[in-house]
TrEMBL record, chain A:
Entries under InterPro entries matching the protein: MetI-like (IPR000515), MetI-like_sf (IPR035906)
Gene Ontology CC annotation, any one: plasma membrane
Subcellular location(s) of the protein: Cell membrane
Record keyword Ion transport present: no
Protein family (similarity comment): Belongs to the binding-protein-dependent transport system permease family.
GO biological process: transmembrane transport
Protein name, entry field: ABC transporter permease
From TrEMBL, chain B:
Domain ABC transporter: 2-233
InterPro entries cross-referenced by the UniProt entry: AAA+_ATPase, ABC_transporter-like_ATP-bd, ABC_transporter-like_CS, ABC_transporter_ATP-bind, P-loop_NTPase
This protein's UniProt keywords: ATP-binding, Nucleotide-binding, Transport
Pfam families: ABC_tran
Keyword Disulfide bond: no
Name this polypeptide is given: Taurine ABC transporter ATPase
Record-linked CDD domains: ABC_NrtD_SsuB_transporters (cd03293)
Any one GO molecular function term: ATP hydrolysis activity
Superkingdom in the source lineage: Bacteria
Length: 247, 254
């Protein structure tokens, strides 16, 4: 990313902090502490308390994401490339896609327990549908003319996959992950409020129950930074993997 | 040498069978060119796709150099209407793509590729992406891609139709030069009578409705110098146009 882009990120952070500062001065209640105090507190406790929680949250997101890609990508490719399979699978996807995944939480908890597995699976469920639909639509949008010269040379499915299907669906696939990730993080927060002693959700809710607002705010700031890191990583991956789009 | 005997292609939908082409007989001698001309919907593209091995189910025979058409065995260069370049590959990777798929590293001679790109006037564009190129440049890349393969047969679907008139004539000249050097048997589909006359040794006129060949015309002007300026060229294209119009009008009336 260019210097200019980083500068805009910095500016956004400054503006948001300023707004926060002004509000904290106006309200003047412990529930909205000044950002200065929060940053001080964060510097004190990050390595001691918060780092381990953020790592737990990151691992859950990472595992859910990987699982969603491992299942969603092949399924999307099959549905997009073979219209016959789409005819059978599309109704299944469309019937299950609109269900708010959080509504399935009781079922997941009964099946997989209240520990790691149900949390990871929840994130998987949120991301996988977006990936399937995006990859399928990306592949469907490829004009037939793109395939003809390859078919006429006797291209195998492997050739078609690596030369056409994968690069054509990659940008759509990355966008899908970007969109789904925001939802995944908020649901993760919710699932981390029970059945675990680790994770940013646990940390923030625990600080709140202990009426330690400085720690609570530190947790929120870390959660926001976590999101920022995830999104910029995705942007960087996209720039490197889909460079033809930036010409 | 390409020989087509009694070729018919039917498309089946859930409830209907639709005949795209029927009873086509054609031969193209080694290193010859054939123009196929016909109204839209007459099965031109179907014919081309069948020869390219893209249609698995057909009746009759299509033989390339004596063997039944098979994309795995023969090298078939197919240039679709919108060039079929991959937007995510650079120009040079697009040109190399065919050899990669054919597993033919012996063709990957850098000097030969460079020479081909120079002949086509795209030697400086190797690292660009297709979207950064003009239509004419994309066309040149598509030509480089098929000629680099030294194919047994070259098939082109409305090859120069997306270009403006002046660029089109330029590309036709470039194509002819390359074709003369490489001597590739070529079949191309067009709806421009002038293009058929300029590039086709023989011209097959498809009929408007029945999906077969109305007639095949030998083109005495082919290969002559500056034939576009020749009054005979105008005369012949006018004659051809009028006779085609008559055929097609009759078909519409029936």
């Amino acid at each position: 990313m260019g210097k200019l882009v980083s500068l805009w990120y910095l500016l956004a952070a400054v503006v948001l902090t300023l707004v926060w500062f002004v509000v904290s001065q106006l309200v003047d209640l412990p529930i909205i502490p000044s950002p200065v105090l929060v940053v001080e507190n964060l510097a004190d406790i990050f390595m001691k308390y918060i780092a381990i929680h953020s790592l737990y949250s990151l691992w859950r997101i990472g595992a859910g994401l990987l699982l969603a890609v491992a299942v969603g990508l092949p399924l999307g490719v099959i549905m997009g490339y073979f219209p016959q399979t789409d005819r059978f699978l599309a109704p299944v996807v469309y019937l299950t896609y609109p269900i708010p995944k959080i509504a399935l939480l009781p079922i997941l908890m009964l099946l997989f327990g209240v520990g790691e597995l149900s949390k990871v699976f929840m994130i998987f469920l949120i991301i996988v549908f977006q990936v399937v639909v995006a990859v399928r639509d990306g592949i469907r949008a490829i004009p037939n003319e793109t395939y003809y010269p390859l078919y006429s040379l006797g291209a195998s499915f492997k050739d078609i996959f690596f030369e056409v299907l994968w690069p054509a669906s990659l940008p759509k696939f990355i966008t899908a992950i970007r969109v789904a990730l925001a939802t995944a993080i908020s649901v993760l927060f919710f699932t981390e409020t029970f059945g675990t002693q680790y994770g940013m959700g646990y940390f923030i809710m625990d600080a709140w129950l202990r009426v330690n607002y400085l720690e609570m705010y530190s947790g929120i700031v870390v959660l926001s930074l976590l999101g920022l890191i995830l999104f910029t990583t995705i942007d960087l991956i996209e720039r490197n993997a889909c460079h033809w789009q930036y010409k | 040498m390409i020989s087509i005997e009694n070729l018919s292609v039917n498309y089946k939908s859930d409830s209907d069978v639709y005949t795209a082409i029927s009873g086509i007989n054609l031969t193209i001698p080694e290193g010859g060119t054939l123009a196929v001309i016909g109204p839209s919907g007459c099965g031109k593209s179907t014919l081309l796709k069948a020869i390219a091995g893209l249609i698995p189910e057909y009746e009759g025979t299509i033989k390339i150099n004596g063997d039944e058409v098979n994309p795995k065995k023969q090298t078939i260069g197919f240039m679709p209407q919108n060039y079929g370049l991959l937007p995510w590959r650079t120009v040079i990777d697009n040109i190399r793509l065919g050899m990669k798929i054919k597993r033919a590293p012996e063709l990957l001679d850098r000097k030969v590729l460079k020479k081909l790109m120079r002949q086509l006037g795209i030697e400086g564009l190797g690292h660009r992406y297709p979207t950064e190129l003009s239509g004419g440049q994309q066309q040149r890349v598509a030509l480089a891609r098929v000629f680099a393969l030294q194919p047994d047969v070259l098939l082109m679907d409305e090859p120069f139709s997306a270009l403006d008139a002046i660029t089109r004539e330029e590309m036709q000249d470039i194509f002819l030069k390359l074709w003369q050097k490489n001597n590739v048997s070529t079949i191309f589909v067009t709806h421009y009578v002038e293009e058929a006359l300029y590039l086709g040794q023989r011209i097959a006129i498809l009929s408007a409705s029945s999906g077969n060949i109305n007639r095949i015309v030998d083109n005495p002007l082919f290969g002559g110098k500056d034939i576009r300026q020749n009054p005979e060229f105008f005369e012949m294209s006018l004659k051809l146009k009028n006779s085609i119009k008559k055929d097609w009008n009759q078909a519409w009336e029936n």
